[in-house]
Amino acid sequence: MLPNINPLSLWAVLRIQDSFFSVPCDYVQSIVALTGIRPVPNVPKYIRGMINHRDQFIHLVDMRILLGIRSLNAEVDEFIELMDSLMQDHVNWLDTLRNCINERKKFTLTTDPHECKFGEWYDNILPTIEDAALKSLLLSFEKPHHDIHGIAAHAEKLLEDGKEIEAMNLIEETKNYELRKMVKLFDEVKKNYRSNHREIAVVLEHSNFQSALIVDEVVKITNLLWDNWRSIDQDMIGYIKSKYMLGIAKIPENESPVVILDVPSLFA
Fold first, then answer.
1. How far apart are CA 126 and CA 115, in angstroms?
2. Which residues contact 97 (CB under 8 A, 6 or more apart)?
3. Domain topology for 11-69+199-267
4. pTM, full prediction
5. What confidence category does residue 7 fall into, taking pLDDT thresholds of 50, 70 and 90?
6. What are phi and psi of 16, to 5 degrees?
7. What's the angle, vertex CA 174, arms to CA 168 and CA 177, rounded to 5?
8. Euclidean distance between the first and the last CA atom of the chain, given in angstroms as a whole number
9. Mean per-residue pLDDT for 27-48?
10. DSSP 8-class letter at 176
11. Nearest partner of 51 among 34, 72, 71, 68, judged by Cα
């Protein structure tokens, strides 16, 4: 049964990971960048701390933690670590090739740019990227990455022809140009990813008390569709803490489901 909701009200649609949630705009006081967090001892894990908002200290409710989802900061840190690891792989690849040439050993690492860890990740992730700036950065990897893997056969041929110095020079030139270009691109990708995955604080007020919800993004302010309203069913319990939810409506433009948050329960 539809709760006591004015269907003409405006709602703030919030994204938390890949799901949409919404609160009535009547409760929303402001939307602010998340800075200056002060830790608070002896509180539940979902209370991140406090911020000073308009000369008033208010609690921060991390919605991801409240819903049992890994924090956005953890996701960003994991992505940064992945980029650092993939970058280091290519530093190690060139060092191994140099050692093999120097010791006249067979080079056994992959020379196919699609088969290294970065190549596999790149081929899988590129079709899913919608952000134009990030996609442009990733596309810029193709030539230097392909060129790095392409020098192994050339270096080994030079060694076979008795041109060991030329082979070593080729590796050093590749480190100074193609590898340096890739390192710079990795740094730009990390900067882009961190910039586009910043937490947002939505300050709410209820019964003269204020609290702020930490979310991934405030998607829009809009009316919602209530024709196919449904309450939270048992199958959703576990992923969603049902006591904080009233039910599910839809976003008008694409009819995506949006979970209606019970604001008073968040203050309880």
1. 15
2. 107, 109, 151, 152, 155, 171
3. OB fold (Dihydrolipoamide Acetyltransferase, E2P) (2.40.50)
4. 0.81
5. confident
6. -130, 110
7. 140
8. 23
9. 90
10. I
11. 34
| Residue 2 binned pLDDT confidence (cut-offs 50, 70, 90) | low
The contacts of residue 142 (CB under 8 Å, 6+ apart) are none
| Domain boundaries for CATH 2.40.50.180 within the chain | 11-69+199-267
Q: If you search the block for the tokens 């039910």, which residue do you land on?
A: 247
Query: What would the mean pLDDT of 46-61 be, rounded to a whole number?
Result: 91
Question: What percent of the chain has a predicted confidence (pLDDT) above 70?
Answer: 95
- What CATH number does the domain located at 72-195 have? 1.20.120.30
Q: Which residues of 24-37 are buried (b: 16+ CB within 10 A; e: fewer)?
A: beebbeeeeebeee
d(CA 173, CA 256): 52
Mean of the per-residue pLDDT values of the chain? 91
